[in-house]
Amino acid sequence: MEMRGRRVNTGGFELHVEEAGQGNPPIIFLHPAASDHTFFAPQVEAFSATHRVVTFDQRGFGASGEADGQYQPADLADDVAWLCDHLEVERPVVVGCSMGGGIAVEFAARHPDVPCGIVVLNRSVLANPAQDSTIRQLAEMLRGPSAAEAVEMLVNAQIGPLDPPELGDEYRSTAMSTRPHVLAAVQEAFTDWDGEAALAAVRVPTLFTFSRTPGKYADLDRIKELCPQAVIGHTVGAGHFENRSVPDQLNPMIKRFLEVHVMP
């Protein structure tokens, strides 16, 4: 697998983009917060054999430039639409994990004619006031002298015993190198996001996957109520980043979703 990397100028900042493979539908992967384009390496390797795949560092993350405090879900979703136009990526499937999953939903809601499907990994998008309060506190820490402590708290919350040991080291490294004020801005922006309204506006085939007890993580009936076409799957023995802890389960799930719901 040969990755083709380059930087593209949006007119306000640069995005670091990498591509591999060819074939339709194209697949765009959206990394979680405190990560970068390398996060989906197992999926890029698996799907680039039959699809054009695109990964990129989202604004403010990795090698991409900052965007003057503009980190609302709508801003991040519009970046995906801009990339599709700039790279001539037609009717992609957009796969996002955690924060990236929220962006995938917002993208499909704001740009309904662009994607042909979305895949949302471990992101419920439903309102969760208690969790939002915790995230706001974390964002405040990220803006102050306790930023390093806040990043460590974030890493410990995301990485657990079901994740491969090397993933913990990798995620900690990318998290520690992420600009704290960017991470704070993104985290805070999503606490104000109306994910339910966005999900209700999605019209394309949609796959949600979850790796934890449904009652703890999402109201699955509510997801189906908002998005009747949603397919919901569960991985077994996976951590929050299920694409990295159980790619042997997740990759076939995505492949089958494409075969049955996107490419029939």
From TrEMBL:
Gene Ontology cellular component terms for the protein in this record: membrane
Single GO term (MF): hydrolase activity
Superkingdom as given in the UniProt entry: Bacteria
Sequence ranges assigned to domain AB hydrolase-1 in this UniProt record: 25-122
Key words, A-Z: Hydrolase
Keyword NADP: no
InterPro entries the record matches: AB_hydrolase_1 (IPR000073), AB_hydrolase_fold (IPR029058), AB_hydrolase_sf (IPR050266)
Keyword Hydrolase: yes
Protein name: AB hydrolase-1 domain-containing protein
Species this protein is from: Mycolicibacter kumamotonensis
